[in-house]
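[step 3/7] fold_predict: job queued, chain A
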Amino acid sequence: MNRNGRGIALLAAGWVLSGTLAWADPGSPMLIGVSHLEVGLETEFSSRDMEGGGQKERERVARESVELIYGAMENLDLFAKLGIGMITLEENDLTNLASPLYGIGFRSTVPFDGGYYAGFSGQYQFGNISNLENNPVTVKVKDQWSEMETALIVGSKDLLRDPEPELRFYGGLRYSTRNDKLSGSGQPSVTMKSEDSIGEMIGIDYSDQKKFRFNTEIGTGDRTSILIRFGLVF
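[step 4/7] structure written:
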């Protein structure tokens, strides 16, 4: 089974696991509700250490994607994404022009008394880059990359009172991996893998579940990242 097949299989297993939690009380935060649709815009900037072929590399990623989100259950969202991204390999001074990326994933949240909640999510993203640039020269190096991430969060909307907005704070742990298979003309391929896989994140989520949702998140550890999401609910 190739990397894309393994990633999809792992996500399917996580979806089944989260489905056993999804029959909790309705009205979970950060989810859009059963049978609803949401169209979202996601922007992410990240940087992480990679290693492979006896080399170390610092990789920076900037990407923009559109998410289509479906409320499969009251406490379970499924999503697919399509976007463009740019990758920079700092040590080799290589950058790609905007190239397409694809992704699938899920989010599941279970509420508890007192405004607290716990959530579990997973996603798989992948893409292919035809050429990298060492400005002003275009280098014939291809990059077949993939990322997988799972995250566990806990949070509360009970930190602000009177009036209590739909504003939620959360923190959590994530496990993520990234692989870049680099191949050039007449050269053996090299697979770069992420050095670290465990990280932490904190975030803020604000929403009117019948209209829109806004989320911002910062993370460290496995990678340094800034994530911003905005979605319209239908």
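[step 5/7] annotate
The chain has one domain: 3-112+131-233.
The helical segments are 3-19.
exit 0
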